[in-house]
């Protein structure tokens, strides 16, 4: 397809195909001893301009080549497989290159592709005819003149075939590496664009088919549920046990309820569809705004933003570095603060302990001072007592015996009077307790009123000695209003 492939016979000979296998058996085998290539043999064996002797010599040479041993006999299996893999790789590369050249010609010059295909068909037809003639000429090489007679009879046909061979063997303009690279890149871009378009179309088709499948599944589920509900409610449960028929009222009620439910579902779907349409319109308007923004924004703006982002990124990195340094400093300071806090906590505990000890000592000192004052006061009292008894001892005089006897008698009388009064007091207490119990019983009170123990003159407001009769305490307590009126 390219000029290099068409003009270089070595490259064509390295890629045998199924169309030229028969020809290569006779004319395309390179003989390293004779130094003749397949292009030289195929170009001179059927050229009508050569003499008869030259044609006979070429036929003899081709016959001898068939009798020689092939050059692959010296290779072992591994080397033969390696050579086969290399040739297959070369053939694959050449096929890819030919495909790229064909695509390039289809895009730029479609008529050249048609002419090239016509030329290939003519070349293949010519090769098949040449292979048949070479086989006939090799079979009649023993006689020595059959090839010349056959070539003389078909000289008019060989003229056209020679022109085709000359056209195929002629060297055209070569395609350099940069042009090939450009063609490959262009083909790759075209393939990539076609792949993107196909992917987009396939994605849209897939979404559409997926939506349709979901819709069909939903419809199938709804139909199945409706059929099951109808069979259960109408066919199974709606049969009248007397008539063994389905009443029309049940059927109509069920259908009305089903239609009502269906209308509700339809309204829900309409609401959902309207919301989806609204969302789609919003998204479409947003997309239009972004497209308009993309038209207004140029590449320079993106470059400027990129430069600004780089500056901001550098600033952020600097701030992060500064922040990292500050964090390190903060960590060190926190460590020092923790150490000092621990030391301060220890000192605080020690200070608290000392302060508590001082408080205890002060308290103990106050107690000791109080005890000292108390002891001092007791000491002063003891000194006073001592001085008193000392003075009494110094100034003591023994009293007279008669006076002692009198004092002793007075003491006995006083003690006797005290005993009498104690007995009287005990009796009065008993009487008082009895009177109080009686007053509680009469009044129903559980407590002793203070007015019960007051002087009657203060309670009644008159002198007892001026009245003819003195009321009893019980009567006074039971009828206090009577004596209040009299008073």
From TrEMBL:
Residues 263-427 form the CCDC113/CCDC96 coiled-coil domain. This is Cilia- and flagella-associated protein 263. Its main location: other. Residues 34-45 have a biased composition (Low complexity). PANTHER family: COILED-COIL DOMAIN-CONTAINING PROTEIN 113, COILED-COIL DOMAIN-CONTAINING PROTEIN 113-RELATED. The lineage of its organism: Eukaryota, Metazoa, Ecdysozoa, Arthropoda, Hexapoda. Keywords: Cell projection, Cilium biogenesis/degradation, Coiled coil. Residues 199-226 form a coiled coil. It comes from Acanthoscelides obtectus.
């Amino acid at each position: 397809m390219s000029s290099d492939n068409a003009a270089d016979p070595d490259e064509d000979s390295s890629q045998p195909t199924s169309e030229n296998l028969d020809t290569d058996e006779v004319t395309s085998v390179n003989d390293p001893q004779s130094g003749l290539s397949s292009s030289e043999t195929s170009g001179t064996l059927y050229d009508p301009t050569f003499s008869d002797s030259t044609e006979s010599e070429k036929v003899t040479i081709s016959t001898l080549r068939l009798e020689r041993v092939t050059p692959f006999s010296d290779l072992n299996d591994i080397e033969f497989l390696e050579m086969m893999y290399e040739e297959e790789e070369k053939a694959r590369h050449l096929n890819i290159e030919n495909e790229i050249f064909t695509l390039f010609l289809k895009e730029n010059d479609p008529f050249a592709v048609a002419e090239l295909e016509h030329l290939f068909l003519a070349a293949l037809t010519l090769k098949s005819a040449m292979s048949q003639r070479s086989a006939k000429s090799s079979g009649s090489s023993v006689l020595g003149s059959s090839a010349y007679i056959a070539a003389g009879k078909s000289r008019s046909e060989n003229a056209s075939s020679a022109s085709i061979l000359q056209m195929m063997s002629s060297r055209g303009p070569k395609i350099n590496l940069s042009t090939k690279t450009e063609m490959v890149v262009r083909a790759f871009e075209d393939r990539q664009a076609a792949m993107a378009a196909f992917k987009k179309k396939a994605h849209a088709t897939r979404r559409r088919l997926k939506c349709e499948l979901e819709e069909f599944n939903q419809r199938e589920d709804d139909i199945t549920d409706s059929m099951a509900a109808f069979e259960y409610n109408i066919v199974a449960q709606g049969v009248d046990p007397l008539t063994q028929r389905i009443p029309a009222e049940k059927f109509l009620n069920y259908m009305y309820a089903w239609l009502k439910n269906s209308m509700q579902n339809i309204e829900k779907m309409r609401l959902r569809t309207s919301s989806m349409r609204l969302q789609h319109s919003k998204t479409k308007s947003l997309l239009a705004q972004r497209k308009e923004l993309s038209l207004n924004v140029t590449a320079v703006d993106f470059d400027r933003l990129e430069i600004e982002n780089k500056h901001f990124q550098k600033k952020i990195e600097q701030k992060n570095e500064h922040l990292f340094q500050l964090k390190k400093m903060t960590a060190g300071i926190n460590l020092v603060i923790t150490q000092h806090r621990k030391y301060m906590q220890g000192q605080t505990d020690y200070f608290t302990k000392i302060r508590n000890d001082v408080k205890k000592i002060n308290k103990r000192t106050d107690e000791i001072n109080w005890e000292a004052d108390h002891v001092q006061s007791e000491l002063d009292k003891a000194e006073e007592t001592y001085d008193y008894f000392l003075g009494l001892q110094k100034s003591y005089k023994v009293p007279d015996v008669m006076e002692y006897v009198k004092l002793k008698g007075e003491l006995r009388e006083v003690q006797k009077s005290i005993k009498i009064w104690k007995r009287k007091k005990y009796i009065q207490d008993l009487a008082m307790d009895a009177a109080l119990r009686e007053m509680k019983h009469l009044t129903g009170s559980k407590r002793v009123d203070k007015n019960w123990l007051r002087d009657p003159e203060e309670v009644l407001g008159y002198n007892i000695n001026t009245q003819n009769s003195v009321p009893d305490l019980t009567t006074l307590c039971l009828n206090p209003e009577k004596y209040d009126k009299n008073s």
